[in-house]
Design goal:
Number of strands: 7
Number of domains: 1
Number of helices: 7
Strand content: 15-25%
Distance between the termini: 44 Å
Radius of gyration: 16 Å
Helix content: 25-40%
Largest sheet: 7 strands, mixed
CATH class: Alpha Beta
Shape: globular
Structural class: alpha+beta
CATH architecture: 3-Layer(aba) Sandwich
CATH superfamily: Gcn5-related N-acetyltransferase (GNAT)
Length: 202
């Protein structure tokens, strides 16, 4: 696998539709909700140097973008996706690590967070130093949560007054010089996910 991971530029606009289609297909395959994004939104992220793209010989391999909230106090790494041809090769972790490091360079001192239902992403986040947190520790900016409107589980988020959903919130706080080591436990998180699905969907 000879993949190049770089900051997305205008020359990568042509991949925007494929990125959106891959995100949607992946969500359908996993049976999970996803906040849909338009090609125009993806292109805007590229234009603002707020996205990371992975390519192999000119072919789209993976993608992730950055969003900032509350004047850069909070940063979210969102939309992580790997093309089916490049899955199970460790590429997701490489992209996530790149966008995590780039976020710290572009937004020094920001708290970096994400919400996800994917156990693989939770594992990567945990390895990078994120820890699971309640939604109350994430940004309170309503425009972030409005971005969840395209998700099939948005009604659950609304009913729970934006305090919880099927997603798990994870946060990296750079002020924690020696963060508490959190051992990733797939069984525990899988069970938690099942409990959420049972009770929150009622």
């Amino acid at each position: 696998m000879n993949v190049t991971i770089c900051i997305a530029q205008k020359e990568h606009y042509k991949f925007a539709q494929e990125i959106c289609d891959t995100m949607e297909a992946s969500a359908l395959l996993r049976g999970t909700g996803i906040a849909k994004r338009s090609p125009e939104y993806i292109q805007k992220k590229m234009q603002n140097n707020d996205a990371i793209i992975a390519l192999e010989n000119g072919k789209f391999a993976g993608f992730c973008y950055i969003e900032s909230w509350e004047h850069g106090q909070f940063v979210a790494n969102s939309g992580l996706i790997v093309h089916p041809d490049f899955r199970h090769l460790g590429l997701a972790k490489k992209i996530k690590t790149k966008v995590f490091e780039y976020s710290q360079e572009k937004y020094p001192g920001a708290k970096i967070f994400g919400i996800t239902t994917g156990l693989a992403v939770m594992k990567i986040n945990s390895d990078l130093g994120y820890k699971p947190v309640p939604f109350s520790e994430l940004t309170a900016d309503p425009t972030f949560w409005a971005g969840c409107k395209g998700c099939t589980n948005y009604d659950i988020l609304e009913r729970k007054e934006f305090k919880m959903c099927l997603c798990t919130g994870m946060l990296y706080d750079p002020e924690n010089k020696k963060p508490e080591e959190v051992k990733f436990n797939k069984k525990v998180l899988t069970r938690l996910k099942q409990i959420k699905q049972t009770f929150l969907k009622k």
